[in-house]
Amino acid sequence: MHEPDSLHRTNGMHSGAVLHHLDTARNRASWPTVSAVVPTLNEVENLRWLLPRLSGVDEVVIVDGESGDGTLETVRLLRPDAIIISQAPMGKGAAMRAGFQAATSDVIVAIDADGSMDPKEIDAFVALICCGFDIVKGSRYCVGGGSDDLTLIRRAGNLWLTRLANVLYGVRWTDLCYGYIALRRSAVGRLGLEADGFEIETELCVNAITAGLRIAEVPSHEFDRRSGESKLNARRDGLRVLRTMMRNRRTAPRHVIPRYEPGFEEAG
């Protein structure tokens, strides 16, 4: 049985060992470079909070779905070194896939633009990558995690889908539908990502299992969206997650070589 590990139980290591690895990695200058991939669609107010807090990453990749609220102008002002990709609003999955292809760092961190994910947690994700994992997924249900945003319906749906994933894929995850994820850039091509919507988070995790990649869970606290309304639809996107799990259990992920897509704009 494939069992992902958490910050409290990382392939036989305790959390203290992980934190020690974090400290020693920084001290010996072996910390990997990190790209933050941020899908955006009319998130100008939230980006004013988020972008200054991404000072610890080496590269910021903004994938924007043709926002009309000044999102790109704010990115250019607050993060003039950011890579900006502007594309039709096809969904979060399409944005993440474009961002993964454009990122150039050793480690890629997917983080939402709405301010619900704390950038201070990035180091914990990257530390587990340094410990040998290929993918690190945040969990709101590990000890130390939590959520201020989940409704009763979304919480119940996520719990049911997580349990189903555990049965179908022989894992022991505590949280399935959460998009705070770090991964090695070298692993992107092995994931065969094709999803356009919110189901991209599930596709990434289950394809990693069938591709034989090592996955860890780390506690994460989800805050309320700082402003605006979520684009997620619990019923529609829950069905997409279900279909993704069922389909991908029968089909091995197609190997995709990451590449730059023409037409992206590098701000600055």
Description:
The chain has 268 residues and is of the alpha/beta class. Helices cover 37% and strands 15% of the residues. Helix 1 packs across helix 5, helix 6 packs parallel to helix 9 and helix 8 packs parallel to helix 9 (234-250). It is globular and about 45 Å long.
Jot down its keywords.
alpha/beta
Q: What string, H for helix and E for strand, traces the elements in order?
A: HEHEHEHEHEEHEHHEEHE
Second CATH tier, the architecture: Alpha-Beta Complex
Helix content: 25-40%
CATH superfamily: Spore Coat Polysaccharide Biosynthesis Protein SpsA, Chain A
Provide the residue-averaged pLDDT.
83
From the alpha carbons, calculate the radius of gyration and give it in angstroms. Answer: 17 Å
Give the helix tally. 9
Give the tally of β-strands. 10
For the biggest sheet, the summary is: 8 strands, mixed
Shape: globular
CATH domain topology: Spore Coat Polysaccharide Biosynthesis Protein SpsA, Chain A
The strand order across the widest sheet is 8-5-7-4-1-2-3-10
**In terms of per-residue confidence, which ranges show pLDDT below 50 for 5 or more consecutive residues?**
1-14, 255-268
Summarize the helices and strands and which ones pair or pack.
Elements: H1 15-27, E1 34-40, H2 44-50, E2 59-64, H3 71-78, E3 83-86, H4 92-102, E4 107-110, H5 122-130, E5 135-139, E6 146-147, H6 152-169, E7 181-184, H7 188-191, H8 200-210, E8 215-219, E9 221-222, H9 234-250, E10 265-266
Parallel strand pairs: 1-2, 1-4, 2-3, 5-8, 6-9
Antiparallel strand pairs: 3-10, 4-7, 5-7
Helix pairs in contact: 1-5, 2-3, 6-9, 8-9
